Structure formats: structure tokens, C-alpha cells
Amino acid sequence: MTALAGAVAATALAVGSLAVDPAGAQSNPFQRGPAPTTTSVTQPQGTYAIQTQAVARQSGFNGGTIYYPTSTAEGTFGAVVATPGFTEGQNVLQWAGRYLGSNGFVVMTISTNTILDFPTARANQARAAMTWLTTQSPVANRIDRNRTAFIGHSMGGGASLESGRALPDTEAVVGFQPWDVGQNFGSMQVPSLVVAAQSDPIAPKNQYARPFFNQIPASAEKAYLEITGGHFLGTGFNATQARSTLSWLKRYVDNDTRYDQFLCPPPSGGGIVTYLHTCPTGS
Fold it and tell me: 45-277, superfamily in CATH?
């Protein structure tokens, strides 16, 4: 074999090892954790051991708590900032911090500057928190700052949608029973999951969640999940809500197509009333 032929063969072998895993499936450098199952995605705890770290007040937001995998063996992780709703503390999203952290994300639940802040103020704080988390926090070296997402409940859900609209390089947004006023999300470019509660007197679905979903262009990729329950569905672990949230973030933050099965065809059961979607097409 000539030197040139040997170099070509070695290059082909290296490329092949990156593109194909031993089972013949395309590999993904952002894929984290074992293959999901219908059981694993509905459990409050994932496979990663996690640690938490309290965060003092920082410039732009009022501190919070970081939930992160203890192992660095697989490399860096995507980052998620979770924002609570009107009068709520960060503790209402503790379930999301533990659930998503133990499934391979670095998550920070934030405290807002005041519990009465409206969505736009919360969005500004969420974005400040993301900048701090990915560049200055003690776990910044565990994060891939190019893979970020915002989630939130009620006014925090509206804030998450606003953050995604303002930062089109964001990989994903999830709003739990979102509430916002004076907004239009027709320019949204970020894959967005809107979770509504069927019986919600505070953020009625037909006034908030459904119009927000309708405004988001299909080119952004989007889903609308309506579940039985009330406004505070997003403040505690709900298996149906959690499954779609994790699958959405895995698919769009980690590019992990193993989770497509939980997004399309439409999921059913578990209190789902309505599910509207654009099937995942992005890489």
C-alpha cells in the first residue's frame, strides 16, 4: 500500500468511526445517556447522579440553584435556565432541575429580582442567568454554551418564549401554562413546546397557550400539548408533561433522534387532551 493510499484508508476509517457506532447507527457527539424507554422518560429521576449548588444574587438576576451531572466522562452538557411564575419561588421548578439534570443537562432554576416581575423582566433575567451560567458559573466548564434552552411556568413560560424569540440561536424553548401580554411570537425561530392545562382559570388556554402556539411559525418546529389539570401543573412533576419536555430538549438541544418516538407520531394517554405538532425535521 502506498503512503497516499494508506493515508486515505486511515482517514476513511477515522471518519467511519465518527459516523457509525458498532450497531451501525449514526453517532451523535451531543448524545448523552442510554437509549430512552417508555418507562425511563416518565420517571422523576434519570440515570445521572447529580449535585446541586446554590447561587447567590448576581448581576441581572436574583440567584438560584444549579443541578448538574457529577460525571464529566461524556463531555459537556446542554444548559437550561428555568424561570418561575408570578409570586413563585424557584422551588416550584425543583422537579425540572432534578429531572432534567439527572437526564444529562445542566439546569439552573432562578429566583427573579422580585416575585411580582412581569414576563419581559423575567425574560431579561433569564437571559442574564444563561450568560452567567455558561460563562462565569462554577460549572461553566461542564457546559456546551452553544446548546441552550429556556423553560418556565406561567409568566416564566411567557418569559421563556420571549427569550427564545430574542435569542434565535437558542436550541429549544418550553413554556408550561405560559402567560404573557402584548406579545406576538410570529418571528420565533426556535423549536418551541407550549404546554397548556385544560382547566386553567389563570392562563386560559384559548387566551394564551393556543394563540402563542398558533403565532409560532411551523418553520421553527413547534408542538402544543394540552393536559388535564389546572394552572399549577407546571409546578410539580407530571409524567406526561415531563416526557414531552425531556424529549423536546433531547431532540433539539442534543440532536438526539432517539427521542423522536415520543414526539411523533403524537403521544397519547396520560391525560392528553390535544396534541398539535410539526414532526421533528431539524438535524
Answer: Alpha/Beta hydrolase fold, catalytic domain (3.40.50.1820)
